[in-house]
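Open question from group meeting: does this chain pack into something compact, or does most of it stay loose? Before anyone orders reagents, we agreed to write out a predicted structure and look at it together. Recording both the input and the output here so the notebook holds the full record.
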Amino acid sequence: MRKINNKVKPFPVYGAMALAGKMSIYSVPETVRTRCIVIQMQKSLPGEESEPWESFVNVPEAEPIRWMMRCWAELVHGDVLDYRGPGRPMIPAGIRNREADIWRPLLVVAEMAGGDWRERARVAAVAATGAQAIPSDGIDLLADIRAIFDRLGFEVIHTTDLLAELALMDPSRRRMDGKRLARTLHDYGVTQTNKNQRIGDKVTKGYRREYFETAWQRYLPPPATPATPATSATDEGSDDE
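Structure tokens returned:
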């Protein structure tokens, strides 16, 4: 919705596009990446050959298919806009929120196409939003922090030590400081950031494992094996500012 001349009016903004390039998926801004269906391409194996694209040959071959698809799209356009489904759920279980918004147009088209397209589209949607989904940088950060706590067996860690461990796991984080770490974590609901923590005789900014538990449950899959971190004997609680 947009406010135009002091009146709120519907303003459709959906527009499907296809982008391709030789780049890391992380080169694409996260706000764009999380609104896309990502198809990860792979470099061919040695000796693996593919048919080259020749415009003067392949374009004429594709023209009849393009014409039929255009005619079909114009025929069903109105029905697609009003489609509500034949009394059964169109979105597979487990696909919700933004992922459902992304896949709904393609799933509607598959429903209208009939045949085995409905099932093929649903299988593709589940696969793309499951194991093949590419996490965001923030979710990667949460996963690495959980791995650090699990590996070290700590209940509390100083910020400088946490940043050093994160940089070892991903050298691109070497410029990350405590403020940037806190801002990133805040977006995922970790609001108890950079509190004073006592470990032995040293009191300085740090994090406790319990600060992350809710974010881990919300954004990460369950760990393969339950973590049983041991409380350090030198952990003597926190001193908040």
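Observations to bring back to the group:
Helices lie at 30-33, 55-81, 97-113, 117-129, 137-152, 159-169, 178-186, 213-219.
Confidence is low (pLDDT under 50) at residues 230-234.
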